[in-house]
Specification:
There is one protein chain. By secondary structure, the protein is α+β, with helices and mostly antiparallel strands. The chain has one domain: 3-Layer(aba) Sandwich (Trna Endonuclease, Chain: A, domain 1), CATH 3.40.1350.10. Helices cover 16% and strands 46% of the residues. The chain has a five-stranded mixed beta sheet with strand order 1-2-3-4-5. β3, α1 and β4 form a beta-alpha-beta unit. The longest helix has 17 residues. The chain is globular and about 40 Å long. The termini are far apart. The relative contact order is 0.21.
Length: 108
């Protein structure tokens, strides 16, 4: 990700609401990225493990992170998924930008 211009500012951010693997900037976007690893693709692609429930948790944590750091609503945000499949000898990394939209707590 860094080779493509991504600037990480936080790794494994945890709070009461949950956890986000990577937080950083890709251009003007504040990006909240979930990383999923699978040794093989036998049980589906690693990205498929980011279910609706996990997306909702990521959004809650992102909201808290933005609140804690004073990041307003006008900062563009994005939710990415980084899927890693394989072993060191044969590793494939897929970076899905804008993998899902923000799930607002107010809509529930």
């Amino acid at each position: 990700m860094q080779e493509r211009g991504f600037k990480a500012v936080e790794l494994n951010f945890r709070c009461r609401q949950g956890e986000i693997d990577i937080i950083g900037y890709d251009g003007e976007y504040l990006v909240f990225a979930e990383v999923k690893y699978r040794m093989t693709g036998c049980f589906g692609h690693a990205a498929e493990a980011v279910t609706g429930t996990k997306q909702k948790t990521i959004c809650k944590v992102a909201d808290y992170y933005r609140y804690k750091h004073g990041i307003g609503d006008f900062c563009p945000i994005r939710y990415d998924v980084v899927a890693v499949v394989g072993t060191n000898q044969n590793l494939r990394i897929d970076w899905f930008k804008n993998a899902f939209y923000h799930i607002s707590l107010w809509r529930q």
